[in-house]
Amino acid sequence: MSVAIRFENVGRSFASHVALRDVTLDVKNGELLVVIGRSGSGKTTLLRCINALVLPDAGAVFVHGTRVGGTDVTALRRRIGYVIQSGGLFAHMTVAQNATIVGRAAGDSFERRKARASEILSTVGLEALGERYPDELSGGQRQRVGIARALYADPPIMLLDEPFAALDPLARMDLQDEFARLHRELNKTIVFVTHDVEEALFLGDRVAVFDDGRLVQIDTPAGLRSHPATEYIARFLRRRMERR
Amino acid sequence: MSFKRLLVAACACGFLASCTKLSAPTIVIASKQDTEGQILGEILAQLVEARTPYLVERKTNLGGTLLVFSALRSGAVDVYPEYTGTIDAAILHQTLSYAQIRREMERRFHIFVSPELGFNNTYVLAMKAQNAARLHIRTISDLAAHRELRWGVTPEFMHRSDGLPGLERVYGLGTVNAVDVEKSLAYQALASGAIAVTDAYSTDGQLLRYGFVKLADDRHFFPQYRALYLVRDETIRSAPLLVPLLRELRGTIDERTMTAMNASVDIDRRSPPEVAARFLASRFGIHRTHVADRTVALVLRALVRHIELTLITVLVSVLVGVPLGVAAALRPRAGRAIMKVVGTLQTIPSLALLALMIPLFGIGIVPALVALVLYGLLPIVANTMSGLRQIPADVLDAAEGVGLSPRQILAWVQLPLALPFLLAGVRTSAVIAVGTATIAAFVGAGGLGDFILTGLTLNDPRTILLGAVPAALLAIAVEELSYRVEVAVRPRGLR
Fold this sequence. Notes:
The complex is a heterodimer of chains A (244) and B (495). Chain A is an alpha/beta fold and 244 residues long.
């Protein structure tokens, strides 16, 4: 299996804290990697390094073998779907306009965008709501629009930053099921950030655990359960069992 | 006459006026705000219209001496009536004879001084007749024995060396108990007893109306204020027929004639043009067919001009203010500097800001517009900035993350989301512009302020209301209209 995204000794500090410390990892083509950790553990910074919203101050990130930050970042971002927790929808645009904004930026024809809108909206189950405005949608529907927007250009890579964290438990479960299905159907490389252990173990082909900017362990859910690398991870998993 | 026809007539008048202007030299005749200045300006204007091919543009109501004089020097005004004493005190800063004044004005400013018109409109002190009789006050010297009297004097008189400070010294009055009072209010205050003594001009028609007495200047303190016209040399060169006219006016107006003309305006409520026409008819045999009073047409024209001023102001404020607001929002350091400058502009009194424009842009619509725009910027810049800053960070993060360029983010995301704030700023700015535009009349830009200014000068509430009521209604209409525009334009999804 070839490598889609590679981190090589990546470090990144902000004024108040160190977000990433010497991170090295590979994401394979077609893999769904879940990144998990407490807030402030560096997982969001890791994600933002992939689409150049953050540039590392040590080491390098490569996407399909090309170093991030060197080339046109706008073109790079259009080949990477990006979904954030709040949805980040544009309140003054309809659902269809929101979902096809990437096409508008790229100069796609109106017909092309219209056709694509009905495809991606039906992929996320919102084909009837294209003319609605974001404030007329439920939280789960808004999140689906965010995912549709990320799918517009059929990008080989998708980045999701706690996409379901703000949803109620039932809506979250629905979306997790659907997302798992989407992943199987679409065969994309996905990096998915969450702080929900259950979600991580359910969705991830592999799970990367972060603590204080360091990659502590990266393994399959089964491997993680049978061989937790540190007490921190063991505790992480135990807490989840106890809650059940 | 229907509203529509009036509007058409007003437009046609303006159009014809601007066409004929192209052919003959136009002489801009100005005057200060006082009745006498307006009559003297009007006398010369009508004389020029009757006896020469020149066109006349009237800029009456032009504020104080320094304002009009700087307008004359900058070429925005060609002629205005002035007094020898004022030239001495406010312009040349020395006491000179007429011949010396003539020489100095020519040498220093290239300004031609006309022959004297005849009368001396100097300062006098006035009291209520029965009050003066009861206290046995006939001369200014008699006031030294009555330190308890409260004086109400005009701000100009209060501070000029040939006003109150000099008077106190020469007559040994000590420091008199004086407050400053607007000219238009001083006589009412004197009549009501709120003040006992005020300064006045010797030819003031109001003195007759109230029956005030003038106190004799027994020590000859007050300088001579002999009336004459100041003309730019350049104007004389392009309009040489002015010189014989000015010579003809020499000595034609004595103190009694002037006082009577002032009284006709201030007491009998005749208009300065009408009084000037009577004078020219009796003295020069010039008969001008009087245009009937077209008050409604005049108000309408002023209203149209007022709307023009407001619209242009708002348009330019948006074109300048929105980019400034965007720059302020995107670059915090530049933003602080921009807000400081724009905020400071707003703190300058509007009248002072207008006065500052005169040396730069002369008088007329240009300085008024510049001042109005500088005044209207703050709400637009501030609202654009806060409109952009209130956009949630995650929305901008998403816009950047999905691959929009900075320009696309600004045009497709930031400006539309800031639009409701921006429009509210435009609305505030428009209402401010309607109000401030009334002051634009001070620099001859026209509009409804003309009536307010004239009414204040002539102490005529009816004339004030002719300007004030439409201005107030216009402000309300602008507020209402721009609110509707705002609602209609606001993007769906942001309601």
